[in-house]
C-alpha cells in the first residue's frame, strides 16, 4: 500500500477533490445538541466537518443498505402487470468513516455479495461507494468508553477495505491508498511522499491509542467456543432474555446487522411499490408465520438467535467475518445492559464455571 | 464487481392463473403458467421439495411448496387460506395475473434414494409438498422398490388430493393407506392417527433400505417420528420439509434462519438428524 502525507490545513481538500469528481460526500458533523451524525457535505457546511468526535450513533451502513428502499415498481394496466426493478445507486463517498464501520461494510459485502445469490441492489450501490477511512488517533475525542474494536480486531486502524485511509499525525495527516481509485487521488499536489519518520510516528501514536481504550472489553474467543459447541446453558440465555426489552435498538444501530422485511405499498391507483425495510430479530413477529405459529416462543429464544448468529463459529466461517465489529453502539443503546460485551462476559463466566475441573478432596489422601 | 453480471433475485415474473380446484375447506389448487414461455421452461427444472415465492402485488409475497412433480406438464400451487397473501390468491379469478419467482431450496435428493423403499407419511396438508415426490417416484417406478403412502386427516372430507389418492391406490406397486380422526359420511376405512396404520396387517414398514418422508402438523410429526425410531429407523433416513416465515427465499432477509441453517438455502428439506439439532420448534 502506498503512503503519502499532506498538511493538516489541506485535509478537507480531499472532500473537494471527491466532490469535483461527482461524488456525493458524506462526512461527520456535530449536531446542535453536541450529538454527532453523518450528513451530506454541501457548499455551506463544508468547513463544519469535524474529524475528531465520538463516532456517530447511526452507522454509515444506511448509505449502502438504506433503512427503507424501493425494490420494484409495479404498474397494473388493463389486467396486465409490468414489474420494473428500481435501482438507486448514487456515486457516493464517505469521508471520515471509522475503522469499525469499514469492517461493518466489509461484513455486509461478504454477506450480500457472497454465497449462492448476490443482492444486486447492494452491489450497485457498493460499486459506486468510495471510503475514506479515518484512524481513531485521538483517545480523548475519538474513543468512547464503549469502544472495543481492539477485541473485535477491527481497529483503531483498518487494515484494508478502504479506498483511502487518513491518520492524524499532528501537523500533518498520513494518507494510505487501499485501492487504485484511492491512489489516483495522490496525483493532486497536496500529497507529498512520506518518510521513515512519518511511519515511525504513526506506529507510536497507534501503540499509545491501543493502550488508551477504557474498561469495555469483549473476550470473544472463549464465548465463540462455548456457543459453537452448544455449551451455553438454557439458564444463561434466559438471564440474557429477561434483560431484553425487545426494542430492537441493538439491531438498528448495528453496522453488521443484515435482516430485512419486504412489504408492498400502494402509491397510485395502479401503481405499487415493493419496499424493503430493516427488520430486527428482537421483535416478536420476526419469525411468526401466517396462522400464528411462532417457532421462537420466548424472548430468550430471540436473544439467543442474535448472539448465536453473530458468534457461532459456523456463521463466522460462512462469511469469513464476524458480525460484530466492536463499535460499542449496542452498549450505548441497550436499556437492559445486554450489549455485545456484557453478553460475551455473561456467557463466558457462566459457562467457564461448568468447565472447572473437579477438585480432588484435599483430605481424602490423609489418614 | 461487475453489476451487469448479477441477476435480480428479488424480481418475480408475471404469471397467469388458469383454473382453480377446491381440495378441502379453505384449501384450493391454483393452476397457473408464466406469461413468458422461456420462464416457464426454466422454472420446470425444479426438483421435488423445492418452493417458490408468489407475489400478489399490493398485498405481498409468500413462500409455498411446489406440489407438482417436474415430470408433470402443469404447474400449480395448493394453498390454504390463512393470511393476507394467501387470501388474496384465493380471491383471484382465472385469467388474472400475479407473479412468481423460484424455484428455491434444496429439494428432496430423489436420485440418492434410487433402489430404496419409499414411505410417505402425510398428515393433512402435509401431503402437498410430498405429492411432488410421490408423483416423481411413480413416474420413475422402476428406480424405487416398495412405495407406501400413509395419509391421515381429521375427517374424510379433509383428505387431500382425493382424485390422486384414488388413482394411486389403484396403481400397481403403490400401497395407499388412509385414516381419519373422526369417521363420517359412510367412511369405512381406518379411524385413528396415522401411526395406527403402521400396525395394520400388510402395512408394515420395512426398516432396511427405506427412506421415510414425514410431513404434517407438529403433534403428528412428533408421534410419527417416535414410531419410526421405535421401529429402528436411522435418523438420517427420515426426511421432512420445514416451513418458516420467509421474505427473500435466497438467504438474505434472515427470517428463516434456524440454528445453523437457513431454511431457504440449506432446506427446506432436512433429515430428522438435522432437524433435531436445529434447536427450534418444528
Outline the structure in words:
The complex is a heterodimer of chains A (367) and B (282). By secondary structure, chain A is of the alpha+beta class. Chain A folds into 2 domains: 3-65 and 88-211, no CATH class; 220-256 and 287-355, no CATH class. Chain A has helices at 13-20, 99-113, 120-127, 149-152, 180-184, 196-211, 220-228, 234-242, 249-253, 299-311, 313-319, 329-333, 340-355; strands at residues 3-7, 24-30, 36-40, 68-77, 80-85, 92-97, 129-134, 164-168, 172-177, 192-193, 260-268, 271-278. An 8-stranded mixed sheet of chain A has the order 3-2-6-7-8-9-1-10. A 4-stranded antiparallel sheet of chain A has the order 5-4-12-11, with no helix packed on it. In chain A, helix 7 crosses helix 13, helix 8 (234-242) crosses helix 10 (299-311) and helix 10 packs across helix 11. The mean pLDDT of chain A is 89. With 282 residues, chain B is α/β, with parallel strands linked by helices. Chain B has 2 domains: 3-104, Beta Barrel (Elongation Factor Tu (Ef-tu), domain 3), CATH 2.40.30; 110-241, Nucleotide-binding domain of ferredoxin-NADP reductase (FNR) module (Rossmann fold), CATH 3.40.50.80. The radius of gyration of chain B is 19 Å and the shape is globular. At the A-B interface, strand 4, strand 5, helix 2, helix 3 and strand 11 of A face strand 4, helix 2, strand 6 and strand 13 of B.
Amino acid at each position: 500500500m502506498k503512503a503519502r502525507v499532506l498538511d493538516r490545513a489541506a485535509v478537507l481538500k480531499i472532500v473537494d477533490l471527491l466532490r469535483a469528481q461527482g461524488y456525493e460526500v458524506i462526512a461527520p458533523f456535530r449536531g446542535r445538541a453536541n450529538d454527532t451524525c453523518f450528513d451530506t457535505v454541501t457548499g455551506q457546511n463544508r468547513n463544519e466537518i469535524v474529524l475528531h468526535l465520538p463516532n456517530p450513533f447511526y452507522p454509515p451502513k444506511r448509505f449502502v443498505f438504506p433503512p427503507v428502499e424501493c425494490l420494484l415498481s409495479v404498474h397494473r394496466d388493463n389486467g396486465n402487470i409490468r414489474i420494473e426493478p428500481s435501482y438507486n445507486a448514487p456515486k457516493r463517498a464517505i469521508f471520515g468513516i471509522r475503522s469499525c464501520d469499514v469492517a461493518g461494510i466489509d461484513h455486509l459485502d461478504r454477506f450480500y455479495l457472497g454465497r449462492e445469490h448476490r443482492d444486486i441492489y447492494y452491489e450497485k450501490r457498493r460499486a459506486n461507494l468510495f471510503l475514506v477511512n479515518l484512524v481513531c488517533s485521538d483517545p480523548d475525542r475519538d474513543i468512547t468508553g464503549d469502544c472495543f474494536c481492539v477485541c473485535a480486531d477491527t481497529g483503531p486502524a483498518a487494515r484494508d477495505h478502504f479506498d483511502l485511509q487518513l491518520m492524524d499525525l499532528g501537523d500533518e495527516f498520513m494518507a494510505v491508498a487501499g485501492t487504485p481509485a484511492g491512489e489516483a487521488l495522490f496525483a493532486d499536489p497536496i500529497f507529498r511522499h512520506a518518510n521513515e519518520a512519518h511511519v515511525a510516528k504513526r506506529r507510536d501514536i497507534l501503540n499509545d491509542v491501543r493502550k488508551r481504550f477504557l474498561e469495555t472489553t469483549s473476550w470473544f474467543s472463549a464465548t465463540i467456543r462455548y456457543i459453537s459447541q452448544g455449551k451455553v446453558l438454557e439458564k444463561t440465555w434466559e438471564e440474557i432474555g429477561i434483560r431484553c426489552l425487545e426494542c430492537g435498538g441493538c439491531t438498528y444501530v448495528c453496522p453488521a446487522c443484515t435482516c430485512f422485511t419486504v412489504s408492498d405499498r400502494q402509491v397510485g391507483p395502479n401503481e405499487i411499490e415493493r419496499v424493503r425495510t430493516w427488520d430486527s430479530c428482537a421483535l416478536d413477529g420476526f419469525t411468526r408465520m401466517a396462522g400464528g405459529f411462532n417457532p421462537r416462543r420466548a424472548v430468550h429464544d430471540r436473544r439467543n438467535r442474535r448472539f448465536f448468529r453473530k458468534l457461532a463459529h459456523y456463521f463466522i466461517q460462512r462469511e469469513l467475518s464476524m458480525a460484530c465489529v466492536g463499535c460499542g453502539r449496542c452498549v450505548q443503546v441497550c436499556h437492559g445492559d445486554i450489549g455485545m460485551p456484557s453478553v460475551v462476559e455473561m456467557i463466558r463466566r457462566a459457562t467457564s464455571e461448568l468447565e472447572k475441573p473437579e477438585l480432588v478432596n484435599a483430605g481424602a489422601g490423609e489418614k | 464487481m461487475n453489476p451487469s453480471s448479477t441477476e435480480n433475485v428479488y424480481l418475480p415474473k408475471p404469471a397467469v392463473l388458469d383454473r382453480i380446484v377446491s381440495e378441502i375447506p379453505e384449501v384450493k389448487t391454483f393452476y397457473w403458467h408464466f406469461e413468458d414461455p422461456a420462464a416457464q421452461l426454466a422454472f420446470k427444472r425444479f426438483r421435488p421439495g423445492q418452493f417458490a415465492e408468489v407475489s400478489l402485488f399490493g398485498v405481498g409475497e409468500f413462500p409455498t411448496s411446489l406440489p407438482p412433480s417436474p415430470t408433470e406438464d402443469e404447474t400449480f400451487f395448493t394453498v390454504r387460506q390463512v393470511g393476507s397473501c394467501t387470501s388474496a390468491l384465493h380471491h383471484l379469478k382465472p385469467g388474472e395475473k400475479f407473479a412468481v419467482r423460484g424455484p428455491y431450496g434444496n429439494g428432496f435428493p430423489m436420485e440418492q434414494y434410487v433402489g430404496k423403499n419409499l414411505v410417505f407419511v402425510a398428515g393433512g396438508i402435509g401431503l402437498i409438498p410430498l405429492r411432488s415426490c410421490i408423483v416423481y417416484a411413480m413416474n420413475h417406478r422402476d428406480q424405487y422398490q416398495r412405495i407406501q403412502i400413509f395419509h391421515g386427516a381429521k375427517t374424510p372430507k379433509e383428505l387431500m388430493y382425493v382424485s390422486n389418492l384414488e388413482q394411486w391406490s389403484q396403481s400397481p406397486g403403490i400401497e395407499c393407506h388412509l385414516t381419519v380422526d373422526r369417521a363420517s359420511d359412510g367412511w369405512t376405512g381406518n379411524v385413528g392417527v396415522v401411526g395406527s396404520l403402521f400396525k395394520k396387517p400388510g402395512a408394515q414398514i420395512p426398516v432396511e433400505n427405506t427412506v421415510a418422508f414425514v410431513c404434517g402438523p407438529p403433534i403428528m410429526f412428533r408421534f410419527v417420528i417416535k414410531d419410526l425410531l421405535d421401529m429402528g429407523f436411522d435418523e438420517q433416513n427420515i426426511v421432512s420439509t420445514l416451513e418458516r416465515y420467509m421474505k427473500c427465499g435466497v438467504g438474505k432477509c434472515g427470517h428463516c434462519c434456524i440454528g445453523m441453517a437457513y431454511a431457504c438455502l440449506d432446506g427446506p428439506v432436512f433429515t430428522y438428524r438435522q432437524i433435531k439439532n436445529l434447536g427450534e420448534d418444528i
